[in-house]
Design a protein that fits this description.
The complex is a heterodimer of chains A (416) and B (305).
Chain A: E1 2-10, E2 21-29, H1 35-45, E3 65-68, E4 71-74, H2 80-89, H3 92-96, E5 101-102, E6 111-115, E7 122-124, E8 127-128, H4 131-140, H5 163-170, H6 177-181, H7 183-187, H8 194-204, H9 212-221, H10 234-238, H11 245-258, H12 267-281, H13 286-294, H14 297-302, H15 306-325, H16 331-334, H17 346-360, E9 362-364, H18 366-369, E10 408-410
Parallel strand pairs in A: 1-6, 2-5
Antiparallel strand pairs in A: 1-2, 3-4, 3-6, 7-8, 9-10
Helix pairs in contact in A: 4-8, 5-8, 8-9, 8-11, 9-11, 12-13, 12-17, 13-15
Chain B: E1 2-4, H1 14-27, E2 32-33, H2 44-48, H3 50-67, E3 71-73, H4 76-88, H5 92-102, E4 116-118, H6 119-127, H7 129-135, E5 144-147, H8 171-178, E6 182-183, H9 202-218, E7 223-226, H10 229-237, H11 239-246, E8 253-256, H12 257-264, H13 282-294
Parallel strand pairs in B: 1-2, 1-3, 3-4, 5-6, 5-7, 7-8
Helix pairs in contact in B: 1-12, 3-4, 3-5, 6-8, 9-11
The chains are: A alpha+beta (416), B alpha/beta (305).
């Protein structure tokens, strides 16, 4: 047993006079028990009004999503000793400060900071309103199969190679940790978000669904859709089940790219322009990227769309400021296309790589395949835990054995 | 070091590439520039074709390996995009497939013993902050610096070596302290600058940048420092535009990592290209001169170059 201090962000809606405040609880538990166990002990011994949502205590039900030391996660999957060690090394409690702290005298022990999930309204203490944010967004992506024609006489059959597309998203337990962590949603509350978009990919990748292209058009053209993800990886770190929602959003973009969906957000054009520039120049021609993302090719310049003119006009003040300070006072930075190629025959080799890889577009999914252990990282035989004692969770990539045929497949729509 | 400067440090942020050269020379770090290497793809090429992105980066790694030196980058985005490829290229079957494509150029990538680190990681893990402190000629004298890490060097942790180095998300803080600065705690230090969506969702992107700059100003920062030139584009080059979106005055200097180190090593702001920034760095220069005049430890430091 050991003592830990939980510094909890509290909010009691029935008390009209008091806003959110901090309260610290000392708990006494085995260090390998979870932060959720700590909260339940505090609730049991100190304050029965402490509100926390939980059920299975085994990272299956997805009820106890919250922020621990600022990181969105499941309280039942976070060990007390881990959380305390992180709180100490990162001086977390000092950073949150607090408008009202009822601190306990705990002998200088680092406090584990516990808060309700972000990007959602708080109902009470650590309980957030999942309905108004998470579930509304999930429903936004039509989260059910839309097959075409009559159902088969027997069950639908999904071929093994399609599992690359749906298995990872299917591991989602709807805990909301990724939504809580999403930095795009912080800046744009209308962003459809990581959980719902990962769910959407599960249907677009599912061969039983007949509306994949429609779904892609919808999500690519929505200003709060797949191109509103800022690629910050927060949802990947937050997800307790290895769903890596951002990876699924990138797969949605890849699928939209292969369908050549000309979205109104310039997402496809930006990706196509970027890829083309590196093929031609080897390194990025920033001026050309902006021009070709907004007004691609001759057609884009002769018949620019409204968004293109607006975008190009908006960039003019930035360019003028850059010329004034000297940041952009050179031809390659001002005139699209003047940027130099790689030296010697390097550019030819880059072009050759393009020619070769565009032919087959192999996609490696490490979630399904598993990662190879380095020679020096492998567990020595004598210390290896007998297999019978290890019960890996189905969502976790723990073994290095590959399952050929399901892991290295062609990207959706890939090949020619 | 086999030095990969990336695209943006030779494009819109040449002051980064320039200051890195000066600082490396002063620190005795020899840089062998990988001038034949190609763009990391910034995650964008991988969206189009994962195998293409992995092969392009394997080419860069193979070129670095030809030098026999460890690889160093100066861009969080390069670090993140390349680490993602490195992770997949640990798979031997997949790597063989990629190496077949590289063979025609006489290149091959072998992950054994290969390392690719951002300058920040090199400074803390290899060069050492104590050794760096010995080189300081103009201590920052309590200059209040807000760290801005950039997503690609922070997340996902399992890909970026946090198991071995669990405090990589504290290195900028430690570096600022080692140089004599004061770390400003503010909400945005480990958040996203918004740059990746500047073309697709301009307002959301600029709101992210503007909010973080505003938070740092509210926390009394004299400047920000970042190891990512793409963050610099949104935080500095787009700062006046971000100010319009968040509807408040900003005007906070944003330094590249080698510039902050360079100031402490005694270089003049102009040598470090700080006049090229959009958000004026005058305030930082004034604070440093004030502190220098008041601080006997730094007496005569400015002429030590």
């Amino acid at each position: 047993m050991a003592e830990f201090t939980l510094k909890v962000r509290r909010f009691q809606p029935e008390d009209q006079t008091e806003g959110p405040y901090w309260e610290s609880f000392d708990v006494d538990l085995d260090p390998t028990l979870s932060v959720l166990d700590g909260l339940l002990q505090a609730k049991d011994r100190e304050d029965g009004s402490l509100a926390v949502r939980c059920s299975c205590r085994a990272a299956i039900c997805g009820s106890c999503g919250m922020k621990i030391n600022g990181q969105s996660t499941l309280a039942c999957k976070t060990m007390l000793e881990e959380a305390q060690s992180y709180a100490e090394s990162h001086a977390v409690a000092a950073q949150v400060g607090g408008d009202k702290t009822e601190s306990s005298s705990n002998g200088g022990r680092p406090e584990i900071v516990v808060e309700p999930m972000g990007n959602m309204p708080v109902i009470k203490d650590l309980v957030t309103d999942m309905e108004s944010t998470h579930w509304t967004k999930i429903r936004r992506v039509t989260p059910w199969l839309l097959p075409d024609g009559d159902p088969p006489e027997r069950e639908y059959i999904v071929p093994p190679e399609s599992m690359i597309d749906i298995t990872q998203s299917m591991a989602c337990i709807q805990c909301g940790a990724c939504v809580s962590a999403c930095l795009s949603m912080e800046a744009d509350p209308d962003f459809i978000g990581p959980a719902a978009l990962a769910k959407a990919y599960r249907f677009i990748g599912d061969p039983r669904d007949a509306e994949g292209k429609e779904r892609l058009h919808d999500l690519a053209n929505d200003p709060h859709g797949i191109y509103d993800c800022t690629h910050c990886f927060s949802c990947i770190d937050a997800c307790p089940k290895g769903v890596a929602p951002m990876d699924q959003i990138m797969r949605l973009r890849r699928a939209a790219d292969h369908e050549e969906i000309q979205d109104q957000n310039h997402g496809h054009n930006h990706m196509a322009a970027f890829t083309k520039i590196i093929e031609q120049k080897g390194t990025l021609d920033e001026a050309l990227l902006l021009q070709e993302s907004l007004a691609p090719g001759i057609k884009g310049k002769l018949m620019p769309k409204h968004g293109a003119i607006k975008g190009l006009l908006e960039s003019i003040p930035t360019a003028i400021r850059g010329i004034r300070t000297g940041k952009m006072r050179s031809l390659p930075k001002l005139i699209p296309g003047v940027h130099p190629k790689l030296p010697g025959d390097s550019q030819d080799h880059v072009k050759r790589i393009y020619a070769h890889t565009e032919d087959h577009q192999v996609e490696l999914n490490l979630y399904i395949r598993g990662e190879e252990a380095d020679a020096d990282e492998s567990v020595p035989q004598a210390e290896a835990v007998p297999e019978s004692e290890v019960k890996p969770e189905p969502d976790e990539v723990s073994d290095s054995e590959s399952r050929p045929g399901t892991d290295m497949g062609q990207a959706p729509g890939g090949g020619s | 070091m086999a030095y990969w400067p990336g695209c943006v440090s030779r494009g819109f942020t040449t002051e980064l590439h320039g200051s890195m050269g000066l600082v490396a020379e002063r620190l005795g770090i020899e840089l062998v520039e990988l001038d034949r290497a190609n763009c990391c793809g910034a995650g964008v090429i991988a969206e189009h074709n994962q195998e293409l992105a992995d092969t392009l980066n394997a080419r860069t790694f193979a070129l670095a390996q030809q030098t026999g030196l460890p690889m160093m980058n100066i861009c969080s985005t390069c670090q993140g995009a390349q680490s993602e490829c490195q992770q997949r290229l640990r798979d031997s079957e997949y790597r063989s497939h990629i190496n077949e494509t590289l063979a025609e150029e006489g290149l091959s990538y072998d992950p054994e013993g290969f390392s690719n680190k951002n300058f920040l990681w090199v400074l803390v893990e290899d060069y050492g902050l104590d050794r760096l402190k010995e080189q300081v000629q103009r201590p920052l004298g309590g200059l209040k610096v807000g760290p801005f890490y950039g997503c690609y060097i922070l997340r996902p942790k399992h890909r970026l070596g946090y198991e071995e180095h669990p405090e990589r998300d504290l290195y900028l803080d430690r570096l600022i302290e080692a140089l004599g600065g004061e770390v400003v705690q503010y909400d945005g230090a480990r958040k996203c600058c918004g740059f990746p969506i500047i073309t697709m969702a301009r307002e959301v992107s600029l709101r992210q940048a503007g909010t973080h700059i505003g938070d740092a100003i509210d926390a009394d920062a004299d400047c920000l420092v970042t190891p990512c030139p793409l963050c610099h584009l949104n935080l500095d080059m787009q700062q006046p535009e971000a100010a319009k979106v968040v509807n408040r005055d900003l005007g906070l200097a944003v330094l590249h990592l080698p510039q902050l180190v360079g100031l402490a090593l005694g270089f003049e702001p102009k040598e470090l290209g700080m006049q090229k920034h959009i958000a004026s760095t005058k305030w930082v220069e004034e604070r440093l001169s004030d502190r220098q005049a008041a601080d006997p430890r730094s007496e005569g430091a400015a002429v030590a170059t």
